[in-house]
Design goal:
Layout lengths: L2 H4 L13 H13 L9 E8 L5 E8 L5 E5 L13 H11 L2 E5 L11 H15 L1 H4 L6 E6 H16 L7 E5 L10 H5 L8 H12 L22 E8 L3 H13 L4 E10 L9 H18 L2
Parallel strand pairs: 3-4, 3-5, 5-6, 6-7, 7-8
Antiparallel strand pairs: 1-2, 2-4
Length: 298
Amino acid sequence: MDPELEAFLPFFPKADLSDPVAARTRFAELAGAVPAPDTSGMDVEDRTVPADPDVPVRVYRPHQARGAVVWMHGGGFVMGDLDTEHPWAARLAENSGAVVISVGYRLAPENPFPAALDDAYAVLTWVAEHAAELGVDPERIAVGGHSAGGGIAAAVALRARDQQGPPIRYQLLNQPGLDDRQESWSARHFTDTPWMNRAKVTSAWGHYLGSAPASPYAAPARATDLSGLPPAYIGSAEFCPNRDEDIAYAQRLLAAGVSVELHQWPGTFHGSQAILSAEVSQRQNAELGAALRRALAG
């Protein structure tokens, strides 16, 4: 493990989602310790997207932005909100120059699948319909997210393709949760890795799926046809249970004719990019912004 990351391991709480309410409190405490970037170069506004029910969003609009990304926070489908994602959404807007629409989707287990997907898709539709108001080109809209949010973003891309929904320019998927089956080597063997391990992944999928059978819109790795999807950036962490399913999804996208940029980050673990003092974390966060900037340019 990267020594700059390893030094922080004693400060991370035990990987546990057995009590979702307690887990949310711990997650919020961790997020509160992360410094947010200076937002003086952008307009930040809380909005409500009309849906059933309405979806809260936070819009980060850098000056002279042309493209946008509908962005889903991480948290194992159970944790996170607009406030916990603020440091990352603001940082992504700063690094990419894109409008970031951070989605406060409904959380499991109180709201299992497809609640989060429905919320995210409603926001994508709203952004496409209000592109002029947001000051962005409707042909330059991406979807993306961290962890569970990356999985939801991948599902949004599948649904938009299948339902001839709004055109999506790019998928920005950082350590996405894509496969509930947990059959890969990393999913089976990473039982004691920091922040995210096999048991926590099992709990996350159990909360998210509830009693519903898994489908490609819940677990995108189950999709049999990946053709016609938007180009993608996929980032994976070496000591993350999601690692191998992320790499496999990138390979399957490539085999389906989809352009992919894949970066496997050595010495990292799931969510370790939150340790901003580490050089590798700085590179990870900068690259997410740079990849999005490139995708929405031209």
